[in-house]
Amino acid sequence: MKKTTGKKRRLQKPEPNGDSPANGPRAKSIRTVNGFDCSTNEPYPAYSSPTSDECLSVRDDLLNLHGFPREFVKYRKERERLSECCSVVDGSGGELAENVKSESVLDGLVKTVLSQNTTETNSEKAFASLKSAFAAWEDVLSAESKCIEDAIRCGGLALTKASCIKNILSSLSKRRGKLCLEYLHNLSIDEVKAELSTFKGIGPKTVACVLMFNLQKDDFPVDTHVFEIAKFIGWVPDEADRNKTYLHLNQRIPNHLKFDLNCLLYTHGKLCSKCSKRTGGRQRKKSLPNIPQFSIGPYSKKKEPRTEAVGGQLIAYGQY
Asked: What percent of the chain has pLDDT over 90?
């Protein structure tokens, strides 16, 4: 990918067949870095679900139900800005706020690290505490690990996360001479995966989140909510693990639907008590009434769905 010389960066445009540039003929060779598969290999080439129509149907149903999640508006706005769109609209057609501040790639990476194995509320508190305790990332790099741990303790796993953050900053300083990851904007998806995966403690979900939210690339992170819902509605085979689910969905889901669909599946999994496995915080979820329907035809071919829908053609939200 050529480096952009103007003030604005453009989103990668889909290839004619719907694949992202990283999946096209210019894709890099297979690479595995830090235990992370950086290739674009399709683990289930004969598995035809989800289709583009299924992705669109689920996206539209969830958008009608939830509207576009406000917590992701600033990232969506940045994507729209880069593609030279003037506004973002929610599920009701209303225009959303324009005053959205961009988040640095390094901030986004650290925020994602802090979000591991904890609640969204706790991770946000940990990041705010870290930024309050240290004026700049250079201060974090020069600080004692204990000071970093104290600053992020409210987010859990302080020792592990502090070590990961310190390693990122140290490695970045040695390799690039400054604590900045903005150069990643000019790399391909495969190159970003290879670059970020060299940092100890950075796995595929973290990399995918940075790609989608901070680099505005067409990628599809698979967290617990997305993984469980994708398995239930038959978008991946029963035996699929999270990494293979990630690889498969990134091949099958059209690029222009990835961002909205990912944000909406994540939000639905958080809010609906019946749409994910029993996880911590389940008691704070609620069963959502009068919910639109999924189109999940392929699921009925696998096993009997837990629903009264005839022929397995439709399933009411909140029942899987």
From this structure: 60
